[in-house]
Amino acid sequence: PGIATYDPGFVNTASCRSAITYIDGDKGILEYRGYPIDQLAEHSTFLEVAYLLLHGELPTQPQLDQWTHDVTYHTFLHENCKQFIEGFRYDAHPMGMLMASVSALSTFYPDAGTIADPDVRQAQITRLIAKMPTLGAFVYRHQQGKPYVYPDNRLSYSANFLAMLFKMSEPTYQADPRLVKALEVLFILHADHEQNCSTNAVRSVGSSQVDPYSAVAAGVGALYGPLHGGANEAVLKMLRRIGTVDNIPGFIEGVKEGKEKLMGFGHRVYKNFDPRATIIKKACDDVFEVTGVNPLLAIAKELEKIALEDEYFIKRKLYPNVDFYSGLIYEALQFPPEMFTVLFAIGRTPGWLAQWSELVQDKDQKIARPKQIYTGARNRDFVPMHRR
Ligand code: CMC
């Protein structure tokens, strides 16, 4: 019955052709549309990077102005969205609420399923990028038991997001521009990463030609897991559990004995260093200049130092990944740990949509339907209940 290659986890299987993101894991290179990540993080804005991922070129000033206008125009949610967010328990995890809310959005835009029409596709892309921060802020406010703060469209993408989260609790709240910049950098670093687990989920679900809200909801679900986007939350919990620098050697021994993983370390593709981790480490210093140093930073730095000199991690080519330091920044920005992956999801949305858009326009792409190697029984006769 045909030839099947057994490749659990798709370690050696290319599922698509893509012109969006280039990674060389051995050399620690990450490029969006050919532009190195460090240059984009330093010089660009998140909306400019989103445009680049979606359209393949950096926008001209009029193109960027139009794109910024379009995204800003769509930041508000339908009022009914508040009602389904209110249906969640006060202690519901924000990622669970986000996943459900994104999929519910598909019901507000019934035309979204007409994915063959480029104008319809662009409208949903704009809506999703515009509404993700609003949804993220609303689920946070719900969890905190605080009233929702509507978008302030005079502000930039990231400044507006911070205002929707924190403004009402502090009426004088004005995000420090250095913190807004740090959040922009984090969003840019997370914007795409070729065929990672959540993007593969978006492509796989999108290959059935469902609307993009349903496909992106699948991406949010994949990102929720602790081996993927959930790692940043897990890192903070781990650092807190370690508690003091003196406890690090004992913790490392436990990792080497296989009791648990060193969260924020290791990557399927990067076997030398994760270029995003290097940029984040620098952003950490900028943020702590404003907020004061997070005491967990000392534990993280010592943990990194010890692990990088240890034979176990050297042999397996395990290095800090993007999630090792990002949680420390998010915490300094006043986010509770369960919001960290929501921030990752907001950043990754343009990447998911660029990949989805590429998929639905690719004439070679078929519905995702991997083979299996069947290992079960065959040809058994039904056994009536009284004889089992
Ligand atoms: N701590 C301890 N040992 C590890 C770790 C770790 N963090 N990561 C991998 N290993 C070991 C693993 O046990 C295996 O050892 P052995 O050869 O003795 O069996 C070896 O290294 C190879 O690991 P693998 O599981 O085959 O690697 P993978 O490519 O399947 O997994 C990974 C990649 C990211 C899931 C994994 O490194 C991991 O679980 N890391 C911790 C979670 C984490 O930080 N995830 C965030 C990833 S980056 C952002 C994102 O994708 O969201």
Largest sheet: 3 strands, antiparallel
Order of helices and strands: EEEHHHHHHHHHHHHHHHHH
User: Mean pLDDT, rounded to whole units?
Assistant: 93
Uncertain ranges:
none
CATH superfamily of the largest domain: Citrate Synthase, domain 1
| Helix/strand/pairing category | mainly alpha
Shape: globular
Say which molecules are bound, naming each kind only once: carboxymethyl coenzyme *A
* Overall number of structural domains: 2
**How many alpha or pi helices?**
17
- State the helicity in percent bands: 40-55%
In total, how many beta strands? 3
CATH class of the largest domain: Mainly Alpha
What spatial order of strands do you see in the largest sheet?
1-2-3
CATH architecture of the largest domain: Orthogonal Bundle
What's the end-to-end separation, in Å? 32 Å
Provide the β-strand percentage band: under 5%
Protein name: Citrate synthase
Pathway: Carbohydrate metabolism; tricarboxylic acid cycle; isocitrate from oxaloacetate: step 1/2
Keywords: Transferase, Tricarboxylic acid cycle
Family: Belongs to the citrate synthase family.
Condensed summary:
With 388 residues, the chain is mainly alpha-helical. The chain contains 17 helices and three strands.
Can you walk through the features of this model?
By secondary structure, this protein is mostly helical. The protein folds into 2 domains: 15-222 and 340-361, Orthogonal Bundle (Citrate Synthase, domain 1), CATH 1.10.580; 231-332, Cytochrome p450-Terp, domain 2 (Orthogonal Bundle). The protein is 55% helix and 3% strand. It contains 17 helices and 3 strands. α1 runs antiparallel to α8 (177-190), α8 (177-190) runs antiparallel to α13 and α9 (197-206) crosses α17. The two termini are 32 Å apart. It comes from Microlunatus aurantiacus. It catalyses: oxaloacetate + acetyl-CoA + H2O = citrate + CoA + H(+). Pathway: Carbohydrate metabolism; tricarboxylic acid cycle; isocitrate from oxaloacetate: step 1/2.
